[in-house]
Amino acid sequence: MAPLRVLITNDDGYQARGIRALGKALAATGHDVLAVAPLDDQSGVGSARAGMVQRPIRTAEDAADGVTYIGVDGTPALAVTLAQVGAFGTPPDVVVSGVNHGHNIGVPILHSGTVAAALTAAAQGLSAIAVSCDSEDPKHLDTAAAIATRALDWLASEPAGTVLTMNVPDRPLEELEGVRRARLAPIERSRIAGAQAPNGEPMITLTSPSVAPDPDTDEALLAAGYVTVTPIVGIREAPGDGGATYLAEHLS
Fold this sequence. Notes:
The protein is an alpha/beta fold. It has one domain (5-250): Survival protein SurE-like phosphatase/nucleotidase (Stationary-phase Survival Protein Sure Homolog, Chain: A, 3-Layer(aba) Sandwich), CATH 3.40.1210.10. It has helices spanning 17-28, 76-84, 113-123, 141-155, 218-223, 242-250; strands spanning 5-9, 32-38, 59-64, 67-72, 94-101, 127-133, 163-168, 178-181, 192-196, 202-206, 226-231. The radius of gyration is 19 Å and the shape is globular. 44% of the residues are buried.
């Protein structure tokens, strides 16, 4: 495969170990790696790009393993947008987002800055991968980086706008159980619950589901030691004109 201009980003910050492992692995294969990511942790910001228009954006940079890492004062989606419009030189051919510290599973990936960066790329005509490691303090980021690098070989030949979200167990490569196409765990598996703080104000807590997940979901397969691969799409027009028809009939 011919070398690509690859944008890497994340939501853990441009100095996070995950993006550094990813940059090292991709650069070693001969790709032209452009690294642009938030200055600090932006986990859970989704596709936000607030305040991006007509304001200077603070940046910082350093280098490691032959890759220059640029930090921007903003979100992962903003980093993708800036790179795609040429703010840092030649726009990328593809985007790889990660390696995220912690998994991104189930329907709540809607809120993930890592996954939203990939979907933002797709909305701008680029294909993308979001890759996450199943640990908040990962020990085997090289495994996830190697998986993402190999997945890029496949992605390069797919139609523009193709997006994969992948989760990788925090294990040595040789200890993985394999790779499986996974269904997103449904919203009922979400660990988020409402609660009340001691001062009476509302708060969100994390809970443990009381029943086992369906075996074909990313939640179950990742726990069993498999790399999970899920193709996803972003905002897309749905068929049907019921809403428009109803309003047309009842606003006269």
